[in-house]
Amino acid sequence: MRFILCLALAASSAHAEEPKAASSKVTAVTIYQSTALVTRDVSAPEAAGPAELVVTPMPPATLPSSLYAESSDGLRVLSVRFRTRAIQEDTREDVRKLEAKLKELNKNQGQMLAISKANETNLAFLGKLEVFTASTLTTLTEKGHLDTEKTIALAKFIQDSRVKQVTDETLLKQDIEANKGEIDFTARLIQEKAGGVTTRTERDAVILVEKTKAGPAVIKLNYLVSEANWKPQYKLRAGTKDGDKISLEYQAAVTQQTGEDWTGVQIELSTVQPSQNAAPPDLRVLEVSVGGNTALTALPQDTPKTGQGASLPPPTTYLRDLANQSKALRSEATKNSILQNPSEAGKNYNDAAAIEQFRDLLLSREELVNAPLLAELAGEGPSVTYPLVNKLTLQSRQDEHVVEIGRYELAPKFYYKAVPVLTPNVYRIADLVNSTEVVLLPGEATMYLGRDFVGQTKLPLVAAGKPFSAGFGVDPQLQVSRKLIDKTRTVQGANQIIKFNYRILLSSYKSGVVDVQVWDRLPHAEAAQTIAITIINEKTKLSDDTLYVRDDKPKNLLRWDVKIDPKQNGEKALAIDYEYRLELDRNVNIGGFLAK
Hints:
- Helix content is 29%, strand content 35%.
- The protein is an alpha+beta fold.
- The chain has five domains: 19-90 and 199-226; 93-193; 229-271 and 386-474, no CATH class; 281-380; 478-585, no CATH class.
C-alpha cells in the first residue's frame, strides 16, 4: 500500500511540474538573410497581480539570448528567460505520429530480421538432414534393407521444404528491403518536420509580469531564430507587340526550417543585419608597424608587402580576399551581437575596419580611384525592408517558399545587340528604368517573351530611378558573322607593322526596321608597353553615345549603332568594315592576349 501511495504521489508531483502554456500565436515575422525575428502575441491572465506566463513549445532554432517582450497598458514585464527541459516524446502532433510510425517500422524490421535468421538456421538443418539421409541410404543399400517408398517420401520432404524455405526467404528479404526504405523515408520526414532537431528537449519562454489592473492584456514576445533566409528572384515578361510594357514580378525564395510553422502571419523581408546591442562598439587604437611583423592580425596571409623594391600585383588579385575577410568578420560581429557578446562583436568590427583601412594605405591614388568598394566586391547591397501586403503561411520544411514582393510595369526601349567576336547570335535587349519605389536587389531573373521562356539572367543592384538593361533571348531572324578579310606585315626601320582588315555582316529577316548595336574590339595595351594600336580605316562611323565614348572607347572596345531593314540579307547584308594596325619593335613578339 505504501509503494502504491508513493507512486501516486510521484505521478501527482510530475503532473504538477508540467508547465501550463499561455495562449499565444505568431502574428508577425521579419525574415533577414540568415535569421528571422518572430513576434508572438501572448495572452495574459485577466486578474491583477503578478503572473508567470510560459510560452511553449519554442522552436528548436530559437536563439536563447535574443528573447525580449513588449508590454501593454496596465501591464509591466519584469523578466523574460529561456529554459529547456527533457521530455519523453515530441509534443508536436505531426512529429509524434511520425515517430510512432518509425517505432512500429523498426519493430517490424527486427521481427523480420529474426525470422530471416531462423530461416537460415532451418536451411542449414535441411542441409544436415540431406547429408544424414544420403549416408543412411548408403548403409541400408549395402545391407539390403532399403525401403524405397520411405526413401522417396523423405527425399520429397527435403526438396519441398527447401523450395518453401528459399521462397519464403526471398519474399522476406523483399519485405525487409521495402520496410527499410519506409524507415529511411519516415526518418527524413521527421528530420524535416522537426527542423533538424531530434533531441528530446522542450524549449520554453518564461515571462514574469505584473498587472496593475484587471482585464484582458496581450504581451508581444519577440525572439530570433536561425535556419531562415531569403533571396530575391525575378520574372520579366515582354510583350510581342510594339508599345507593350514589360511586366516585372519581384519575388523572394524563402527558406524556413526553424521547426515552427508560421500560419497567417504578417511577413517582412529585410536585408538589415539585426543587432542586440544598445550601444555602439568601442573604437580601438589602430596600431601600425613596419618590417616583418604587423599588428593587423586579421589581414590575409598573402597580403602583398610594401617597402623598397617590393612589387605589388594588380589590385584585383588581393582586393577580393580583403573584401571576403571583411565581410566574414562583420558577419561574425552580427552573430556575437545576437548572442550578446559585445566585447567579441566590438573586436570583429575593429578587425574588419582595419582591413578596410589597410586597403586605403596599400593602394596608390589611381588604384583607389578606380578600385571598387570592398562592400561591392563582397556582394553587399543596401539595407532595405519589404513589407508584404497579404498575410501568409510559411511551414517549416526543406523546400523553398516563393512569395511575391510586388508586380510592376516598366516601359522598355528595345534594340538588338550583336557581338560576333563572341557569338553568332543576336540578342533582344530592353533598356529600362526602375520607375518603382523599391530597390531591386541582385538576383536571378527568368525571362519570357510573350508566353515563351527565353532564358535566365542575373539582374544587378538597381536603385529606384536608376536605368538598367535586360536581355530577352536570341532573335533567330537576325544573323551576324565576322571574318578576317586581309592581314599584312611590313617593316619600317626599327618597327614592324601588322595590319588587319575585318568585315562584319549583319542580315535581317524581320518585318520592319530595327536598331542594332554591333560590338567588336581591338587589342588594348597598357601605356607602359611599347606597342601602338590604331584604327586606320573606319568606313562605318563608331557610336557617339556619351557613355560609350567616355567609358568603353578608350579601352579599344568598338560599337556601331546601325539600323537594318528587312531587305538587307544575303548578298545585300549590311557590311561593317574596319582596319587597324599594330606597331611595335621589330624584335618583339606578342606573347598572347588575355581578356580581363
